[in-house]
Fold this protein.
Amino acid sequence: MLDLKFIRENTEQVRAGLKAKNSKVDLDQLIDLDRQRRELIQKTDDLKAVRNKASDDIARLKKEKADATREIEQMKKVSSDIKEMDETLRRIETDIHEVLIWVPNLPHESVPVGPDASFNRQVDEWGAIPEFDFEPKTHLDLGDFLGILELDKAAVLSGSNFAAFRGAGARLVRGLINFMIDVHVKKHGYEEVWVPFVVRPEIMFGTSQLPKMEEDMYKIEADELFLIPTAEVPVTNLHREEILDGDRLPIMYTAYTPCYRREAGSYGADTRGLMRLHQFDKVEMVQFVKPEDSYDALERLRGHAEEILQLLSLPYRVLSLASGDMSFGAAKCYDLEVWAAGLGRWLEVSSCSNYEAFQARRMNLRFRREKGGRPEYVHTLNGSGLALPRTLIAIYENYQTADGRIRIPDALKDYVGLDVIG
């Protein structure tokens, strides 16, 4: 969440940020509620001062054996007024919270301003788009021809937009996960963690999936739990409600998890094959850093995701997302898009985001620069390193041969135990 004091003191900046994020939050309502709250607190404090004076007067009169009836009645009236004001204050603070949780994070000054993805700005590109002397097949055709991808059987098990892999296809999935985890741990310095795949609502709130994106989430009603949409959720919450020693920062975690998304808002989107699944695998990177270090950390985080694609020799481009295309909680986000030769298009395989203190404030996650120092909110970052479905699409389609086989990228051969599928 944003700090209410910051909103009060920087109202026009916040108003511009909300517009850039396409937010419909009633900022004037929030400012008015905050004004009511502060005025009520002042009135309550004044009455408490009156009550304290009356209490002292009553004690003095009783000591002097004088009549304190009038003062006692006055104190009862004041106490009743204070109780009523406290109840009103609680209602106002609840109303403030209900508005504040819908206020998105503000875009960083370096973010392209625009209402949608058409305003995204390409900032980098790597690798050459492969050329073939034959018509390249899509991953759907290749997976079916080689018997390694079975969408029909997955649909029998779970419905549409699920995937099942067989034989070498399954080995490729497992090998890719192990490869990415090893690179992040051994080369980039992350600590691997293994976390639950279901979480409580407050955990989803902490990383800002709730309430904004609840319709996209799978909820276990009987137990009030959610299937995680990304490892970001449990991993970032590992330190919730903590005050960290500043010397521990940065903290860097990586984790593999399956991810579950209902994709309720994807009606009409391209959902063929592995393009948009309800359950998919992903390796995630999460960082906790000091505020002054977070934008340098974002560039490094992005580089860690890029290196996976470079090691796989997959051509990609990097987009700086426009304000209206970023997630609710992000202050700045890069998308990495890989080229898929069969589909003939760029596909997102990673989003790398800086949330600044937005998530930390929701999780009450802070740090101290020195012993006894004032606690400050940490900055949190996360990035896909990488999401598997579209990475698999790119491997299938960019590494295909004329006779319908799939060559294994050199970096994966030891992990998969094969040079070629087919």
User: Anything to note?
Assistant: The first strand starts at residue 121 and ends at 126. The two ends are 51 Å apart (CA to CA). The chain has a mean pLDDT of 95. The first helix runs from residue 4 to 9.
